[in-house]
């Protein structure tokens, strides 16, 4: 299991090897990472730091090949073989196999475009009137609305609701079947 420190060392080594070593690069990375390695929190300090509660994965009963929007160090209860963090950049790294995607709600559009193009996985997104939502509604294979009182897990480990309704979205036959068998809600 990779810890945040190991990921940082690898990122620094890769940046040096690529010739990107410098104070500006370090400042940019420092702004993106929670560099306090003396604790077990996964809070990166943004309003996007809300993690899917464990019961969702228990109900789905599947393993993902990749969590494409993971915080540094990953989320321990997400059953994914690989976690892409801000360091690996899930938008530029190729996605492989079945993916889990709980994108930043502040700007989900590029994540949704890549999710649709990949067409193999499950994502959790807020309902919206935005163009990305209309496209997702028209192209995804299945939707399940989650209860309005769902509580997410914060980086500090607390439970907290959000003001937006959220849905699970599946693409690919096996993911649709997992959603149908989950009992998490009515499937469209």
Question: What labels would you give this structure?
Answer:
31% helix; six-stranded mixed β-sheet; Rossmann fold; globular; 19% strand; 188 residues; alpha/beta; 2 domains; 6 helices
Gap from first CA to last CA: 37 Å
What is the highest CATH level, the class of the largest domain? Alpha Beta
Could you name the ranges where pLDDT drops below 50 across 5 or more consecutive residues? 1-17, 25-46
**Fold-level CATH name of the largest domain:** Rossmann fold
Major beta-sheet overview? 6 strands, mixed
Record the strand order, biggest sheet.
3-2-4-5-9-6
- State the shape: globular
Order of helices and strands: HHEHEEEHEHEEEEH
Radius of gyration: 17 Å
* Average pLDDT number: 81
> How many domain units?
2
Count of beta strands: 9
* Percentage of β-strand residues: 15-25%
- What structural class do you assign from the helix and strand content? alpha/beta
Query: Could you say what the CATH architecture of the largest domain is?
Result: 3-Layer(aba) Sandwich
Helix content: 25-40%
- Count of helical stretches: 6
